[in-house]
Amino acid sequence: MTIAVSPAQSFAPSDLMVRVHVAPDPATRALVIVADSGDYYRSSVTQIDGESGPRMIMLELRSVPGGDYEIRAAVVDGAGHERSSVRKQAIVLGGGGD
Fold first, then answer.
1. Does some domain include residue 62?
2. Lower Cβ count inside 10 Å, N or C end of the chain?
3. Is residue 98 situated within a structural domain?
4. How many structural domains is the chain composed of?
């Protein structure tokens, strides 16, 4: 699993594009993406149908305020257990986070 976030650095408010590449796995049931700066939090859950699910999932985070963000993606199985995760940092300048 890999993650890319663009832009890596921008000015607030900013639209961030998150791209996650997921390897096919029969146990995978969902992808959880979280953006967290301490002052701002947004999350998204996308259902994945194991091996036949999408290999790339894109999420646009619109009008993100200033802050130092950790963007995290994790795949989970049918019981809700995390199977793997990746992280990336994005910096949005302005609005109290710079």
1. yes
2. C
3. no
4. 1
Residue 88, domain CATH: 2.60.40.730
pLDDT at 49: 86
User: Picking from 49-53, 69-73, 78-82, 89-93, which range would have the lowest pLDDT averaged per residue?
Assistant: 49-53
Q: Name the residue range of residue 89's domain.
A: 2-93
The confidence band for 95, taking pLDDT boundaries of 50, 70 and 90, is low
The CA distance from 47 to 6, in Å, is 23
Q: Taking all residues of the chain, what is their mean pLDDT, rounded to a whole number?
A: 93
pTM of the model: 0.91
Residue 21 tokens read as 């590449």
Q: Which two tokens stand for residue 32?
A: 């959880």
Find out whether 97 and 65 touch, Cβ atoms under 8 Å: yes
